[in-house]
């Protein structure tokens, strides 16, 4: 009898975990033929699954990554899975502002359209510095995408209606920004949380300044996904997190669904500047909706990356 209770408890626990991990899937079947999509960090994780999903819908998909070998391998996989040959790679290092500027010049010279920009690339909680002496999380997760989006904004306006989707995380709620120390790099997890809060403010201010210009913006929390973000850490930590992710995190394909939803759904246009999770608009903590802070961060970011 004890064994039966043990098996039953294990089964109920397993079913409970499966229920907690369930995610909504994007049910919109809209095609993207003739559209150009740019995805940063599209060579792995949620970015790669998003690339597959949008290529399946007929989009021209460009993945922008730092590692050429991994990117070319990802391009082959995306092509095979989507049965689309309209997938390509362009090199960019979001931890280097010069690389971002060169990438944008090349993109604007080669590509006549940009319908959907997906700011997907990001670094986890690491204490490191970019080539321009910004903390790695703030420099890549926020400032790199801030500069990239601003430099590509003219093409987004020309291709209107267009969209900018920036991946964030629900961990934003554990920190607030300190304008006396935006380059905060003391506790790794707090640094990451601040960068994700910056993504939300960035989306809100981008939506405000592009209102009426055919460009809409969305911040997306993909959920906690089974990606390869642990590659920056020790073997034992990676092993532990693999077990935890298997039990509680969702597959990358499920994590990509809200990104795809914001890329294709006509319903989201009424929520420009909004925060999305599980394929629906979701409320934020009150301090994360402060338009004054969003504008102040935008102006500070312009000075930091020298955008006129």
Automatic annotation (TrEMBL):
Pfam families: adh_short (PF00106). GO terms for molecular function: oxidoreductase activity. InterPro entries: NAD(P)-bd_dom_sf, SDR_fam. Keywords: Oxidoreductase. The keyword Nucleus does not apply. Signal peptide: none annotated. It comes from the Eukaryota. PANTHER family: PHOSPHATIDYLINOSITOL-GLYCAN BIOSYNTHESIS CLASS F PROTEIN-RELATED, RETINOL DEHYDROGENASE 14. Belongs to the short-chain dehydrogenases/reductases (SDR) family. This is Retinol dehydrogenase 11. The lineage of its organism: Eukaryota, Metazoa, Chordata, Craniata, Vertebrata.
């Amino acid at each position: 009898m004890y064994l039966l209770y043990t098996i039953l408890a294990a089964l109920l626990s397993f079913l409970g975990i499966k229920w907690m991990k369930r995610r909504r899937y994007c049910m919109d079947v809209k095609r993207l033929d003739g559209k150009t999509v740019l995805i940063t960090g599209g060579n792995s994780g949620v970015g790669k699954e998003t690339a597959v999903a949008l290529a399946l819908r007929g989009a021209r998909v460009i993945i922008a990554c730092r590692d050429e070998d991994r990117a070319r391998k990802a391009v082959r996989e995306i092509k095979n899975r989507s049965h689309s040959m309209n997938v390509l790679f362009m090199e960019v290092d979001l931890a280097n502002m010069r690389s971002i500027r060169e990438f944008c010049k090349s993109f604007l010279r080669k590509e006549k359209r940009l319908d959907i920009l997906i700011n997907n690339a990001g670094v986890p909680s690491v204490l490191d510095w970019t080539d321009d002496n910004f903390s790695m999380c703030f420099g890549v997760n926020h400032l790199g995408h801030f500069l990239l989006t601003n430099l590509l904004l003219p093409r987004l306006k020309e291709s209107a209606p267009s969209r900018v989707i920036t991946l964030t995380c629900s961990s934003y709620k554990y920190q607030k920004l300190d304008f006396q120390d935006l380059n905060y790099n003391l506790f790794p997890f707090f640094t990451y949380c601040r960068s994700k809060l910056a993504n939300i403010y960035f989306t809100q201010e981008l939506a405000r300044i592009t209102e009426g210009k055919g460009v809409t913006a969305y911040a997306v929390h993909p959920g906690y996904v089974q990606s390869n973000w642990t590659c920056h850490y020790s073997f034992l930590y990676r092993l532990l997190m693999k077990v935890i992710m298997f039990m509680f995190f969702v597959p990358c394909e499920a994590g990509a669904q809200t990104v795809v939803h914001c890329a294709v759904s006509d319903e989201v246009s009424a929520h420009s500047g909004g925060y999305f999770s599980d394929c629906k608009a979701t409320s934020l903590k009150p301090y994360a909706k402060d338009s004054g802070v969003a504008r102040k961060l935008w102006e500070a970011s312009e000075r930091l990356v020298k955008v006129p």
